[in-house]
Specification:
The chain has 212 residues and is of the alpha/beta class. The protein has a single domain, classed as 2-Layer Sandwich (Nucleotidyltransferase, domain 5), CATH 3.30.420.10. It is built from eight helices and five strands; from the N terminus they run H-E-E-H-E-H-H-E-E-H-H-H-H. Helix 2 crosses helix 6 and helix 3 packs across helix 4.
Length: 212
């Protein structure tokens, strides 16, 4: 990791660029049968001390309890203006009408609009095949970036906790589906409940065509 960071600094120096902020981008909820897709964007000062947020990593590898603790701690740091973040939930009907790739791209664009960033002094790191708005010239997409880069891992955690909280909330409105347990993913119990009760407004119609 240290070697990788050193390479980034050399590239920055070579291009005579002085980055002031590092941004991480990731999504949660690409594959579920129901609920929104969640896009997380985290902004930290360049050279941020990650000891301030112990345990950051890929949200899928961090326990729910630790994810929630990291989420709460990140909100505190944001309130102290030590870092910044934004999470955008884009509803299921957008996924059905525009497709999942467009919906995630739209969510990323909306998140960046809510953050105050200088495109010339900000480096953006994104997970998988994600892309930031074109105005951010210094962006890099990293396969399994949520594992390799803490800033992407934190974006992943912020996105997932926000989405999980939303799914627990709507479970009270739609108790027949057990959203609080599977968060909308295609478990056997969830698929059985769709067959029995039919879809609700939160279901992605294009994702459940083989079930209903």
């Amino acid at each position: 990791m240290k070697k990788k960071n050193e390479i980034k600094m050399k590239i920055s120096k070579k291009n005579n660029i002085r980055f002031t902020h590092l941004v991480g981008v990731d999504e949660a909820g690409r594959g579920p049968l129901a609920g929104p897709v969640s896009v997380g964007v985290v902004v930290v000062p360049y050279g941020f001390d990650w000891d301030l947020i112990p345990g950051v990593g890929d949200s899928k590898r961090v326990s729910p309890k630790n994810r929630e603790a990291i989420f709460r701690h990140t909100k505190i740091l944001a309130s102290q203006h030590i870092l910044d973040y934004c999470v955008i939930l884009v509803p299921s009907h957008s996924i059905d009408t525009k497709g999942i790739t467009y919906t995630i791209t739209y969510g990323i664009a909306q998140a960046f609009k809510k953050l105050t960033l200088n495109t010339e002094t900000t480096q953006v790191l994104l997970d998988g095949l994600l892309k930031a708005p074109l105005s951010f010239r210094y962006q890099e997409t990293i396969i399994k970036g949520d594992v390799q880069e803490k800033v992407i891992g934190l974006a992943s955690i912020m996105a997932k906790v926000t989405r999980d909280t939303y799914m627990k909330k709507i479970a009270q409105k739609y108790p027949d589906y057990g959203f609080e347990k599977h968060k909308g993913y295609g478990t056997k119990i969830h698929c059985a409940s769709i067959k029995k009760f039919g879809p609700c407004v939160e279901h992605r119609r294009t994702f459940i065509q083989r079930i209903v």
